[in-house]
Amino acid sequence: MKPNINLGIFAHVDAGKTTLTEQLLFAAGVVRSAGNVDSGTTQTDYTEVERSRRISVSAASAQFEYNGVNINLIDTPGHMDFSSEVERALRVIDCAVLVVSAVEGIQARTEIVWEALCQRNTPTAIFINKLDRAGASFSKTLEALGELTGAAVPFTEVKKEGLDGLEFSPVDADGLAEAAALTDEAAMEQYLDGALTGSALKAALKKAVASRRMIPVYGGSAAMGRGVSELIRGITELMPCADGNPDGPLAALVYKVEHSRSMGRMCHVRMFSGSLSNRDTLSLGNEVAKIAQIRRVTGGKYTDVGTVRAGEIAALCGIGARAGDILGDEKLVPRPTSLTEPLLNVKVTCSPEDFPKLTEAVHELTEEDPLLKAFWVKEKRELTLSVTGTIQLEIIDTLLKTRWGINAGFGAPSVIYRETPAGKGYGFDAYTMPKPCWAVLKFLIEPLPRGSGVEYSSIVENNKIFYRYQSQVEDAIPTALRQGPSGWEVTDLRITLVDGNHHTIHTHPLDFAVATPMAMMNGLVSIGTVMLEPILRFRLTVPEDSMGKVLGELVNIRGEFELTGTKNARCRIEGTYPVSSGADFPGFVTRVTGGKGVLSAVFDGYRDCPQELCQPTEYRGISPLDRAKYILWVRKALTDPEMHL
After folding, report:
1. Residue 114 half-sphere exposure, CB side, CA atoms within 13 Å?
2. Contacts of residue 207, Cβ cutoff 8 Å, sequence gap at least 6
3. Counting Cβ atoms within 10 Å, is residue 229 exposed (0-12), middle (13-18) or buried (19+)?
4. Spatial separation of the C-alpha atoms in residues 406 and 47, rounded to whole Å
5. CB 570 within 8 A of CB 542
6. Which of 380, 394, 382, 393 lies closest to 358 in space, CA to CA?
7. What is the DSSP code string of 111-133?
8. pLDDT confidence of 107, banded at 50, 70, 90?
9. CB neighbour list of residue 221: distance below 8 Å, 6 or more residues apart
10. Going edge to edge, which strands form the sheet with 215-219?
């Protein structure tokens, strides 16, 4: 079996990532001619919405063979609104190519993706693109990459660039040997002995790249197809191949879900261990699914391969998995990296006759993107979506029109807050009426440091509350915390079930699931909650002459920052600012710097919101505080026709 390399392509928007992907496919003989983004003929931007908007919206696979190696390539979106696609791609790749424009240099997304690759210790090569454009500078971009990575080594020597023409050549073996010698003591000894040549040099370079002590940098023009053959040869010769035992236990990650008109749902998986074949059965939660077909995918084209083994990537048809699901042993699957979080809520409306279609559409969209959260108030025919940004919202609008024929209305986006207990206290409820029912619960609720999430435990013995009922309590905790007294999700707390009881005759199997939200809400109201606001961590470089205005605006938006350096008449600023007050900050930086400022910002968690700025939100559905109505609603016993579909 030929070795596999699972390769991710990453870049800032418009750096030329998809164009490079097309040229790699052309160089490998997969396509007769390289597709063009502007003409909508690319392999990996193949959906209608991607071709019409000329941007990548989802991670797309392409598979080909080159130099005796099978390359499974994943082309990822460059826009930050689709970072969840990048997050999942990072978990399934073995190595990466980061595309950087020689004109714009290091941009916001470049830094964010680089940090993520560092966190995952992913071997990476860099392709400096657009060397044929006006203002291109290989040397300046290489210098900036050296500062960013600390290990950038040029594998390309550029002799001419820009509009006057493009001339370059590979760095000679002597130059590469000198660079390799600096990464390893054994390589240094070979170099000093004059033995770091041929296969020994290739082995030293491969070792240095795998350990990330060397980041090879190539140059060229993807639009012209220049430098692509050198890059793809470097990928096959230097990058690590996938490992994994095809005879081992099953372990796979569903990194993408799409819906095909012919085959229904297709679940794209990376196999880390074991193998799967057509008609194999899988356990998905409480369900058993049978694989109808296994496909090899390149963009929108598919080939039935019948089997997928450890180290390979393929699409499974016929199973009901969601993006992010793990098949088999989760211990053998890499842990996720978080790049983003939904920060905006928006209400979605449609005509009454389109409501069933909207329900189906949003269900599919949340299967494809687990970060897209949907909150339904079916009694009011009201839907709220939690999204990462306005571009994602525009894409959702387009998909609703083109895939389902729904003309939806969208309200103004609002920032998502959270809340947390203001102190320590108890939550109690005795759900003993109307009969038959019996569930008595007492929780100890304690605040935790920011970013801790939710901790739950129980000290109640089986004779007081059967363990099977306690399982219902634990399962109901996420629902109970979905909305607190101020209407926002509750986080950063420890919940301990300390007391309660069941009744051997009157307790119904679901009584404790009903009582849990009421007990928790009672406790949170009694204790009080503190509202939290989302924070972005940023890194910014601006010309010195605009620094004063930028710092003044950071003060205005409640930013916390420090000046971390000055070089070449440019200042570097790092810090944090709130999402709510800093929504227009990227545009401000662009305006006052004339487009010369470089701002990268990533989600950094939640912190206490100033009391005067807190914004409670309307409770969606029926609050457990409206106890009688809530019980009737949960038990589906409401008689008000306006409260049902």
Report:
1. 24
2. 183, 184, 187
3. middle
4. 18
5. yes
6. 382
7. HHHHHHHHHTT--EEEEEE-TTS
8. confident
9. 129, 130, 131, 132, 133, 166, 227
10. 60-66, 69-75, 4-11, 95-101, 124-129, 215-219, 152-154
Could you count the other beta carbons within 10 Å of the beta carbon of residue 246?
Answer: 15
Supply 88's token pair.
């999942």
- Residue 117, phi-psi category: left (phi > 0), alpha (psi -120 to 50), beta (remainder): alpha
- Residue for token pair 């096959």: 236
The amino acid that residue 394 corresponds to is: E
Q: Is the dihedral of CA 637, 640, 643, 645 positive or negative?
A: positive
**If we measure between CA atoms, which residue out of 212, 302, 315, 305 comes closest to residue 258?**
315
> What distance in Å separates the CA atoms of residue 89 and residue 282, rounded to the nearest whole number?
23
Give, in degrees to the nearest 5, the angle at Cα 371 between 398 and 615: 95
Looking at residue 515, its amino acid is A
How far is the first Cα of the chain from the last one, in angstroms, to the nearest whole number? 56
Q: How far is CA 307 from CA 62, 74, 280, in A?
A: 17, 20, 10
φ, ψ (nearest 5 deg) of residue 251: -155, 115
Which H helix or E strand runs over 157?
A: strand 156-160
Closest CA to 271 of 253, 284, 290: 253
Q: Greatest CA separation found in the chain?
A: 90
Cross-strand partners of 72: 6, 63
Q: What is the three-class DSSP state of 418?
A: strand
Residue 145, H or E segment: helix 138-149
Q: What is the DSSP string of 427-478?
A: EEEEE--SSS--EEEEEEEEE--TT--EEEEE---TTTS-HHHHHHHHHHHH
Percentages (nearest 5) of helix, strand, coil residues in the chain: 30, 30, 35
> Hey, what amino acid is at 268?
H
Neighbour tally for 82: CB within 10 Å: 24
Q: Please give the Cα distance from 558 to 602 (Å, whole number).
A: 17
Res 644 pLDDT > 50: no
What percentage of the chain reaches a pLDDT higher than 90? 57
Q: Do residues 315 and 267 make contact, with C-beta atoms less than 8 angstroms apart?
A: yes
The mean of the pLDDT values for the chain is 88
pTM of the entire predicted model = 0.82
pLDDT of residue 641: 37
Average pLDDT rounded to a whole number, residues 605-628: 89
Q: What would the two tokens of residue 225 be?
A: 């197809």
Q: Are strands 124-129 and 215-219 parallel, antiparallel or unpaired?
A: parallel
